[in-house]
């Protein structure tokens, strides 16, 4: 009986407490069952607690320094967070919201370490099956057959190998680290039309055009020979009176002259020759072609990377002048000082960056010189 009486008394006490509790609104709270005190709204923090005689005292947060995100009566304005290393501010701190930070490019947020970590860069021959983003790291996979990757990247997947089109030959097959290299021009589709009388007439005119062109070339050749003969004859006449002309004649005599002159034809080279020993005219031709902007970007920068230069050194070449030709000149001039700076190494690097047009320029001159020497012998 005593236990039952105790339980009834406790129940009555709870019932009285519930019935007498204050019904405060959502933005307020019950202060010891005696009054409803207001909560501090977002953007304001607690300055002084509620008491029997005074309501809750709130103070405004400072923009960019402190914030308060919700209604409460126990917390002061909190200090704004600062972005950690390898991250930047995505959304600045306000009086109602803390700073939102975001990892820099090539970094992701490590959920365990609670900081931004550097993405895994897939090596050459591997592609990113899951690219790195600001929330997760990259996952790399070796490029399967028919694909390749020739750059280190945390985001790029393997690319499909190029197939040589009709009329082209495969210079080098595709591998997991470089694309197929083709040479030759694609074969165009021609539609055979029946031969008409007009076509036959046009065809008969071609030999006439060739004959006229041959006559013009022959006339120019005779004129040049005549002018050269006249010049040499005059120099022989004045040879004893004008010693300076003697020097000029020696220069014009080419490779057999005792006076040094850089004759473009006499200065031969092959694949084992140093780049610094190339004819000046050939160097200028290389610089001009490398300075041209292609669809792949700045060719000279790609070449510099293939020759082993880092971004910092490339930047030095670029900062020396606003002219792209000067950038290329500085690159070739600096690289040609090394012992391994041969024409063969340069051709290999140009092939890798797919500048076969420049490769053909170098190889053509080597072939022409071999042909000339054979004819002389």
From TrEMBL:
One of its GO terms (cellular component) is cell surface. It is found in: Cell membrane. Keywords: Apoptosis, Cell membrane, Disulfide bond, Glycoprotein, Membrane, Receptor, Repeat, Signal, Transmembrane, Transmembrane helix. It is a single-pass membrane protein. The chain crosses the membrane at residues 206-226. Residues 297-366 form the Death domain. TNFR-Cys repeats lie at residues 23-58, 60-101, 102-140, 142-182. The keyword Glycoprotein applies. Residues 1-21 form the signal peptide. InterPro entries: DEATH-like_dom_sf, Death_dom, Neurotrophin_rcpt-DD, TNFR/NGFR_Cys_rich_reg, TNFR16_TM, TNFR_16. GO terms for molecular function: coreceptor activity; death receptor activity; nerve growth factor binding. Disulfide bonds join 37-50, 40-58, 80-93, 83-101, 119-132, 122-140, 143-158, 161-174, 164-182. GO terms for biological process: apoptotic process; Rho protein signal transduction. This is Nerve growth factor receptor (TNFR superfamily member 16).
